[in-house]
Design goal:
alpha/beta, Peroxisomal Thiolase, Chain A, domain 1, 2 domains, nine-stranded mixed sheet, about 20% strand, binds acetyl coenzyme *A, EC 2.3.3.10
């Protein structure tokens, strides 16, 4: 196991959300398309009082307040995000305000960006720093945060918002560690999802292409990870739980099914198939296998019992906030920690990180010692249930208003402060040359 690991974790999501069932009616699509078809319940979104800096800052402030972190003892702070609001200045430097107040300016690290993968890159950088001769004994802090919004159309219900702050250390011994030599990566040059329109918040997305790129990356990472770890068994031999980057829940189900398809191809006795119904998929050409609906459905069915055991404990947060891009994988880790608490001691969690364009890694985390205090203080479910559900008309108005004001200077936000959670950092104004100023509730 790595010496460095996770000491504490904190999540943040906005106080307002829209129900996917309401959005189905509003968009005039068939009932069940977003809730059953995509597997999503609610979607978190921000109005004009919150931006990527404010949500990351709120996550850090929550970590400090709730987990008792001393900001003067942070030696490295990295941010993973793809929500760009400045082409030069990193979000990390905006978070330096908090550290400077604690008298700490000696802090390495800036931002990592590549779609939903930036948070994982920041985690890997931080681990490398801690296990290098440059480490000075202090903590590492990784913050991942994104605001995912799409223009009207089929991708819009796959938006979301969230941030997560993760504290890394070696002393005291961290309860959540990384298995050495259990990491595999796959990267390629693709145009499945990208953001070439610098004056527009929305990505350019080829939905179908993103799905097959994701599954192709998953295949490669899983096969490489098995080789690297010398594992010849199935996914349940490799780990006890699995957490995936979650664009929408159906994709997580399809990903786990794809892993079982890999298991089947490696050893047909490793899956549940008493009547041999899966044998016809053995010779499907690889390229066709990514779009073969019959194959996909068969393996979603085959994997459903194991999914319940291995994936469901961590899949519920993303169903209720949507795709939080860089924060998606890491807030799902927080969800499984809250759900299972100390039952996780000694257990291995398989993690899959995917960022379009594309960068992906699979690795294994192990809970090595009690996490009871960490998990019981997260209160994720409690906060999810306390949110304000708004109607799709309001959600759409907010997005339209933000479209018009995107990149505008000399503006003051219109959203009432009372609509935010208490103790939230929020935007006060953007001045005439684009500098952002924040306050808190
Ligand atoms: N009841 C139940 N299920 C339904 C209904 C209904 N009334 N209507 C449709 N469905 C099902 C479909 O059968 C389909 O299920 P399947 O995938 O199991 O076959 C599912 O709902 C989605 O319907 P589609 O018609 O395939 O959806 P569409 O093509 O309109 O959009 C997409 C889906 C492409 C994912 C779109 O939302 C998108 O582009 N999202 C953004 C891209 C994305 O998130 N990619 C993921 C990886 S990259 C990243 O993280 C950004």
């Amino acid at each position: 196991l790595s010496e460095a690991g996770i000491l504490a974790i904190e999540t943040y999501f906005p106080r307002q959300c829209v129900r996917q069932a309401d959005l189905e009616k509003f968009d005039g699509v068939s009932s069940g398309k977003y809730t059953i078809g995509l597997g999503q319940d609610e979607m978190a979104f921000v109005d004009d009082r919150e931006d990527v800096i404010s949500i990351c800052r709120t996550a850090v402030r929550r970590l400090v307040a709730r987990q008792g972190v001393d900001l003067s003892s942070i030696g490295r702070l990295e941010v993973g995000t793809e929500t760009i609001i400045d082409k030069s200045k990193s979000v990390k430097t905006a978070l330096m305000d908090l550290l400077c107040q604690a008298g700490n300016t000696d802090v390495e690290g800036v931002d990592s960006t590549n779609a939903c993968y930036g948070g994982t890159a920041a985690v890997f950088n931080t681990l490398s720093w801690m296990e290098s001769p440059w480490w000075d004994g202090r903590y590492g802090l990784v913050v991942c945060g994104d605001i995912a919004v799409y223009e009207r159309g089929p991708a819009r219900p796959t938006g979301g918002t969230g941030a997560v702050a993760i504290l890394f250390g070696i002393n005291p011994q961290p309860p959540i560690r990384f298995e050495i030599n259990a990491r595999a990566t796959h990267m390629e040059h693709t145009y499945d999802f990208f953001k070439p329109r610098l004056g527009c918040e929305y990505p350019t997305v080829n939905g179908a292409e993103t799905l097959s790129c994701y599954l192709r990356a998953l295949d490669r990472c899983y096969q490489r990870l098995k080789k690297r770890t010398g594992s010849s068994g199935s996914v349940s031999d490799l780990a006890d739980y699995a957490v995936f980057h979650a664009p929408f829940n159906k994709m997580v189900k399809k990903s786990f099914a794809r892993i079982r398809y890999n298991d089947y191809l490696a050893d047909s006795t490793s899956v549940v198939d008493p009547e041999g119904k899966l044998s016809k998929f053995r010779d499907v050409p690889l390229a066709d296998s990514y779009t073969n609906k019959e194959l996909e459905k068969a393996f979603v069915t085959e994997s459903s019992a194991l999914y319940k055991k291995m994936v469901e404990p961590g899949d519920w947060l993303a169903k209720r906030i949507g795709n939080a891009y860089t924060a998606s994988l890491w807030s799902s880790l927080a969800a499984i920690l809250e759900e299972k608490g100390d039952e996780l001691i000694g257990k291995r969690i398989l993690m899959f990180s995917y960022g379009s364009g594309m960068a992906s890694s699979m690795f294994i985390i192990r809970v090595a010692s009690p996490i009871g205090k960490l998990s019981s203080s997260l209160l994720i479910r409690e906060r999810l249930d306390a949110r304000r559900v708004v109607d799709p008309e309001h959600f759409t108005e907010v997005l339209e208003r933000k479209e018009k004001k995107y990149c505008a200077f000399g503006v003051e936000p219109a959203q009432e402060l009372a609509e935010l959670w208490s103790e939230t950092t929020c935007l006060e104004r953007i001045d005439d040359i684009g500098r952002r100023f924040y306050t808190s509730t």
